[in-house]
Write a structure and sequence with these properties.
Radius of gyration of chain A: 24 Å
Largest interface: A-C, 61 and 55 residues
CATH architecture of the largest domain in chain A: Orthogonal Bundle
CATH class of the largest domain in chain A: Mainly Alpha
Largest sheet of chain A: 3 strands, antiparallel
Chains: A alpha+beta (about 400), B mainly alpha (about 475), C alpha/beta (about 180)
Order of helices and strands of chain A: HEEEHHHHHEEHHHHHHHEEEHHH
Oligomer: heterotrimer
Largest sheet of chain B: none
Strand content of chain A: 5-15%
Structural class of chain A: alpha+beta
Strand content of chain B: under 5%
Number of domains of chain A: 2
Strand order of the largest sheet of chain A: 1-2-3
Number of helices of chain A: 16
Chain lengths: ~400, ~475, ~180
């Protein structure tokens, strides 16, 4: 009797081979490295680990969140970052201070003027350079326009993550007009590469000013219309009110900043707390809200858009004449030193710490994005809510993965 | 063999389809001629006719089933197109406008695309359940079309428990969703399937309770008779006698079919495609179809129960009697005599030219051929309108079908616009709304209806 | 414009971190309640941890530099007991430099994959060495790419990575931080 040996391969559809676990599975095969990881991966009866994976229609960028759910309720969550890590800080060390401007642009890509401002303002501080007043005013104009376009997109995204298909397109109308006018000014729609060490790249031109005038004419009215779309929508309010409530103590300990912090009632805005550029000369208030939930954050973004429109109005009236760029040498050897700079971006306090060693390359350029700390808040707010609320909370905290992952 | 395989191998794909087809046609023609010549064919046809005549019920049923299955496909295509364009207009954009004029071919092309996609079964799924899930969902939707009365004389089956049959069969759709959610080897699908089960089952009860009021008013569960009892003007429709019932039914129908704001089943910003995450190609197409057919049948049922079915809003007869006008649509073409020949020979070309020439003269950048084509299309439109009007007046089923489809598609458009406007409710809010509010409202409605029936139809009351 | 010299800087040693931070945080005269940034720095000779604090009592930023962490075993105390938001910033400093924060409950890599061996932002990070330690060893031709250290115009001190350091990247010589100022001063 011959024993026939049938050789089966792994392509045989009858064989189901458990694929070896990789580090990208919900439960990694490696033993837990830290206390917190052990606590997270210890599952009780009925709990399930689910991967809100890096490819997902609603995480704001490539973010992987491992959720531990019990039915529909989220018990714990563990964000895994690094899918958009580009090594920006290391690359900046290899190039010039000027190269750092276009390297740092894609960090907060939605509002790229703020991320460009980081190496520029650090270098100016290290050089002790005086930027011309006209350039400062143009910078403020560009910053406030970026803030409005980012907030308009936030409103749309929040509604989209909750299921409403329409507000995102209304938000994009605003954003498209602003982005087109900035394209007339800088040549680019998204990653502007406009700020330079010592000023800006080019003066205001006729195309930009005419578009700006057209837009400003009915900007406020359009924002009011957008407000009417969602403010009293029964379903929207029921989904966001009382959700993800941040109280002041937690906000301070988790080092939140920006609208997330101001929605709890703490009026901390870098433009007033530690003024930079020409903000001391401009008149605006810091909107705050008391409740600290998602609905308050949404309303706060709308208030901030109105304040930004007010600031743009003042800037246009007070714009001085003069050069838009200071006299800087082409090859800039910055004397050794350290400098720290912080500005208010649409998401919070955006800061940079730069060290120079006497050459024209940065010795260390550290960029710190507000979404980095804000995303930690999501991990603290989620447990106890439903899976569907994960998206709502994350959208209302408004993280941008480009800045978080650098 | 190579004398066949060599030239066969050199054909393109289209050639490989056309050549056997042509061969088949030739064979059939030869057989037909031989059959006629030898007298065998009329004999066979006689036998076949007798067999059909003996089993007319079965044949009618098979015919009706085929027609219904074929009917769902164009309906789904039309609804998909409506959805894409209407939601686009709500979003202040244009929607598809490149495939065909105003994008009307886009949903057909979507259908072809879905057929052409790779249809694979992922590892680890439960294959029989996975394969059958779309079938069950689709059948659950399609089998209900059997009892919907489209027009007088145009229905599949007239049972006196038609409404019960409808709800029983429509409930089978949930099983398909759960099968899909369970058998896909995927936690997202599981979540989606469970949400579907919880949501749809919660809304079955208000759906049925809202309809019991209508059943009490009509006294029967047969849909044909319910429509017949709403004959007259639009004030006889049950929408005015059961307004709360209509509202509850509408909301519950939106939740049953899984439309926004209740579309947690496929909430694509949370669980990527819910229960259908692992499906691709035609299987996903089946789920897609099933959703749109579900939408159609729910709108059709709303129309039947509350909006008068195939009844026109106003009956034209009293108006005509007022003006003493008799409209007869009996046509007698033979009375024209020779004039008929001239009409048929000269009428169409003259009408086409009548439409073409103004267009050609006014539109300077169009060639004569282009304006001829447009003129021809306009002529066709005119003729279709005339024929349609004649058919409307002559055949009652045309009129009924027209009104039925108008009302149904108005409701479908309402569902579609709701999708573009509202955000999504959360799972617990969804179920809380169903169990706490809709069921209470439906029971209240039932109570008031029953009391009203007793009071208003009691023969001993002074108004009777 | 605004004042340039708007930062006060203090240097402390790693052993004093907890005490100093608690004092700055709790003392009613200081009230440095907000930690704006926490980062690691690799000067050629030692590692540093740099904190930036803000208080409503003074218009200046306060920079606290924890200096003198040895390059081969940098350890510093964690400030997560005061601000639990600092947890991720310390994870990032660990991931990029290898600085171990004692007291951080969750010190694992945040950007790089969990089985990554090198610390990228160190000044002695070489792509060739990193490739040799990775699963793609011998497959990727990292040795042919330019090394980040070659881009630097001011040569940086390179601590020995082991006896085979010279064989990995024969073109790079170890150099002493000579010209230019020491940015850590």
């Amino acid at each position: 009797m011959t024993t026939e040996q049938t050789i089966r391969s792994l392509d045989d559809p009858d064989l189901f081979v458990e694929t070896p676990g990789t580090i990208y599975d919900a439960i990694p095969p490696l033993p837990p490295r830290t206390e917190r990881e052990a606590e997270f991966y210890a599952m009780r009866d009925g709990e399930m680990l689910i991967n809100l994976g890096p490819q997902h229609p609603s995480t704001h960028g490539v973010l992987r969140v491992v959720l531990k759910i019990d039915g529909e309720r989220v018990v714990d969550l563990d964000p895994v970052l690094g899918y958009l890590h580009r090594g920006v800080e290391k690359i900046c060390e290899n190039g010039d201070w000027h190269h750092a401007i276009s390297n740092c642009d894609p960090l907060e890509y939605i509002a790229a003027m703020f991320s460009e401002a980081m190496p520029v303002m650090v270098a100016e501080k290290l050089l002790d350079l005086e930027v011309p007043r006209r350039a400062e005013y143009i910078r403020v104009l560009a910053w406030e326009l970026n803030r409005i376009s980012s907030h308009a997109l936030f409103v749309g995204w929040l509604a989209l993550d909750l299921g409403g298909l329409t507000p995102v397109l209304y938000g994009f109308i605003e954003r498209d007009e602003i982005v087109e006018m900035l394209a007339a000014l800088t040549g680019q729609r998204l990653l502007f590469n406009y700020l330079r060490i010592g000023g800006v790249n080019g003066d205001l031109n006729h195309d930009f000013l005419s578009r700006l005038g057209d837009w400003m004419g009915n900007a406020l009215k359009r924002i009011e219309d957008q407000q009417k779309l969602l403010n009293s929508n029964e379903i929207f309010v029921a989904r966001t009110r009382g959700l993800g409530v941040v109280d002041r103590d937690m906000a301070r300990r988790t080092l939140l900043s920006g609208p997330v912090l101001r929605a709890t009632g703490i009026p901390y805005d870098v433009r007033r707390a530690h003024p930079y550029s020409v903000y001391p000369e401009l008149e605006f208030t810091i909107p705050t809200r008391e409740e600290g939930d998602s609905y308050a954050r949404y309303l706060l973004h709308l208030d901030e858009i109105k304040q930004s429109i007010h600031i743009i109005d003042q800037v246009l009236h007070r714009m001085p004449d003069g050069p838009v760029m200071a006299k800087v040498p082409r090859l800039m050897r910055i004397p050794p030193g350290r400098a720290y700079v912080s500005i208010e971006s649409p998401r919070g306090q955006y800061s940079a710490y730069g060290m120079s060693d006497g050459s024209d390359q940065p010795f260390r350029l550290r960029i710190h994005d507000p979404s980095f700390f804000n995303l930690q808040a999501v991990g603290l707010l989620m447990p106890g809510n439903l899976v569907a609320d994960t998206m709502a909370i994350m959208a209302s905290v408004d993280p941008i993965m480009g800045g978080i992952d650098k | 063999m190579s004398i066949i395989t060599r030239p066969w191998g050199r054909l393109t794909l289209a050639g490989k389809v056309v050549v056997p087809l042509v061969a088949l046609l030739v064979l059939l023609t030869v057989l037909l001629l031989v059959g006629f010549a030898s007298g065998a064919l009329p004999l066979l046809l006689g036998l076949a006719g007798q067999a059909v005549g003996d089993n007319i019920d079965v044949v009618r049923f098979a015919g009706a089933a085929t027609v219904l299955l074929l009917f769902t496909v164009p309906t789904a295509f039309v609804i998909i197109l409506m959805e894409m364009k209407l939601i686009a207009f709500v979003n202040l954009r244009l929607g598809p406008n490149r495939q065909g004029p105003w994008g009307i071919l886009s949903s057909t092309l979507h259908g072809f695309k879905v057929l052409a996609k790779e249809d694979f079964t992922p590892t680890g799924v439960d294959v029989p359940v996975f394969t059958l899930a779309p079938v069950v969902t689709y059948l659950g939707a399609v089998m209900t079309i059997m009892v919907i009365p489209f027009a007088p004389g145009l229905f599949g089956l007239d049972m006196n428990i038609a409404l019960l049959y409808f709800f029983a069969v429509a409930g089978l759709g949930v099983i398909g969703l759960m099968m899909a959610g369970w058998s896909s080897f995927n936690k997202y699908s599981l979540l989606g399937g469970l949400r579907a089960a919880a949501g749809i089952i919660s809304y079955e009860i208000p759906l049925i309770l809202a309809v019991v009021g209508v059943v009490m008013l009509a006294g029967t569960m047969s849909l044909n008779q319910i429509v017949a009892s709403q004959a007259g003007s639009f004030l006889d429709w049950y929408a005015f006698q059961q307004p709360l019932g209509l509202i509850i039914f509408f909301i519950a129908a939106a939740a049953e079919t899984g439309r926004t704001p209740f579309d947690l089943n496929e909430a694509d910003s949370e669980i990527v495609a819910g229960f259908a995450t692992e499906y691709s190609g035609m299987r996903f197409g089946f789920f897609f179809f099933a959703e749109y057919v579900n939408l159609f049948i729910m709108s059709a049922l709303t129309t039947t129960l509350f909006l008068g079915g195939w009844n026109a809003p106003l009956d034209a007869q009293p108006l005509l009697d007022l003006f003493n006008v008799t409209v007869s649509t009996a046509l007698d073409p033979g009375a024209l005599g020779m004039g008929l020949l001239f009409l048929v020979a000269l009428g169409p070309p003259l009408l086409i030219l009548l439409f073409t020439l103004p267009i050609w003269m006014l539109k300077s950048d169009w060639s004569f051929l282009k304006s001829l084509v447009v003129g021809f299309l306009l002529f066709n439109l005119l003729v279709m309108m005339l024929v349609g009007t004649w058919a409307y007046m002559t055949f009652p089923f045309v009129a009924g079908l027209f009104w039925f489809l108008a009302k149904t598609f108005t409701l479908v458009a309402l569902f579609v616009i709701m999708r573009g406007t509202l955000p999504r409710v959360r799972m617990d809010q969804l179920m809380g709304f169903a169990w706490k509010w809709l069921i209470s409202a439906a029971l209240l409605n039932l109570l008031v209806t029953a009391a009203a029936i007793v009071v208003l139809r009691d023969p001993s009351m002074p108004w009777n | 414009m605004t004042a340039r010299q708007d930062t006060t800087e203090i240097r402390i040693s790693p052993t004093n971190v907890a005490a100093v931070m608690t004092l700055l945080h709790d003392d009613p005269g200081f009230r440095f309640l907000i930690l704006s940034d926490l980062c690691g720095v690799d000067t050629g000779s030692a590692m540093q941890v740099v904190y930036h604090l803000w208080s409503d009592s003074t218009p200046d930023w306060l920079r606290v530099i924890v200096d003198g962490l040895p390059r081969d075993d940098p350890r510093a105390p964690s400030v997560t007991f005061l601000w639990n938001g600092a947890e991720w910033a310390e994870r990032e400093a660990y991931d990029m430099f290898g600085i171990i924060f004692e007291g951080n409950r969750d010190l694992r890599r945040i950007y790089m994959p969990p089985d990554y061996q090198s610390f990228p932002l160190r000044k002695d990070f070489l792509l060739a060495d990193d490739a040799a330690r990775s699963p793609g060893q011998g497959v990727r031709h990292m040795e042919q790419t330019f090394q980040p250290a070659e881009y630097r115009r001011t040569p940086v001190l390179r601590q020995g990575l082991g006896s085979d350091a010279g064989q990995m990247a024969p073109g790079i010589q170890t150099a002493i931080l000579s010209s230019g100022e020491d940015p850590a001063r």
